Amino acid sequence: MQKSSWKYSYNPSLFTSALNTPSWERVEGTQYLEVTHGCAHNSCRFCTYYKRTPFKPSTDKEIERSLKYLSLVDAKTPIKRIFLQGADPFVLSYDRLMEIREKLFSTLPNLESIGGYGRMTDICNKSVDQLKSLHEAGFTDFFFGVESADDALLKFVNKGYDADTLWEQGMKMHESGMPWRAVIMLGLGGHGWGESHPLKTAEFFSATQPSVIGIVSLTLIYDQYTHMFPPLYEDMRNGTFVEAGELERYEELKCFIEHLDCETVVAGQHSTMPYWIAGRMPRDKEKVLEKIDWVLENGDEQHMRSFRDMGVQDT
Ligand code: SF4
After folding, report:
1. Atom 7, ligand 1: which residue's CA is nearest?
2. Residue 223, pLDDT score
């Protein structure tokens, strides 16, 4: 008999948007609970994912209904981790997260940890002591879409916070000791943006030390869920935004890796990355740089572009 996996136990009717997780959170033993609908910001100029889902916290009734389902799943396949759904469930207050935590741990006897996506501004409503306490209570490895620490670039893509806020909240996470993960987005400023993006982002991550840094590459496409194009795509069409070249993005990555100075894992294994780049830092730094150099010497712009387009269509 085929062993059950997350694909068979995930129930889309309990969610207001498509399941949204990094690949490593789609494994047996991990399940999902929608505690917020949509995105509290919903205005990044490269993103359409939650455009048709207004932000609101889930009600107790909605959460109870999902918990009943999760309890049934747990009886067949023990649930060890919950990856909260919504663009940024970490926006909920400390008290609300703790309430949800109590419900989860009392319903799921095998539960070990709770994660989800977060925006860096979600940290603003929590003190360092509260972050410590959340970590002790089982919250860990939230995944934050940092994208860049370049103030001008954050403004350009309307990320909803500036570099000062990013630094302040990032340092709180680091001080709290709660392991966290983050993303850098290559090509975010478009063609010719320059080194400020990789340099400033490497400086930020070196100081704040996320345990994993995901690497993705800006890809402006039609969103099959919302039936929309992102605003930056429209800029591209009218010629006010020129996409970064494929090799230009790997030049950014090289600069980022060269200046990254902390213990972490870099994970550029994403459908937007034509050549996957991964390694433990600083141990694998030279190997990772060698691979990027290989890409820069041998990569073909058109081939990489079509590979990236195909990869995105498949996700
Ligand atoms: S990128 Fe993240 S924070 Fe920005 S609008 Fe999309 S879901 Fe919200």
Report:
1. 87
2. 87
Question: 301 C-alpha vs ligand 1 centroid, how far in Å?
Answer: 28
Kindly give the number of the ligand 1 atom that is closest to the alpha carbon of 119: 3
Query: Residue 252 and residue 201: Cα distance in Å, rounded?
Result: 11
Residue of the CA atom closest to atom 5 of ligand 1: 42
User: Where are the domains positioned within the chain?
Assistant: 1-118, 141-315
CATH T-level topology, domain 141-315: Transcription Regulator spoIIAA (3.30.750)
Nearest CA to ligand 1 atom 4: 44
Q: What is the pLDDT of residues 7-49, one digit of tens each?
A: 557 789 999 998 999 989 999 999 999 999 999 999 999 999 9
Query: Ligand 1 mean position to 45 CA, how many Å?
Result: 9
Best probe residue, ligand 1, of 39, 90, 184, 216 (max atoms within 8 Å of C-beta): 39
The number of CA neighbours under 13 Å toward the Cβ of 90 is 28
In the predicted model, residues of the chain with pLDDT beneath 70 are 1-8, 311-315
- Cβ–Cβ < 8 Å for 294, 286: no
- Contact (CB, 8 A) for 150 and 190: no
Residues 184 and 148: beta-carbon distance below 8 Å: yes
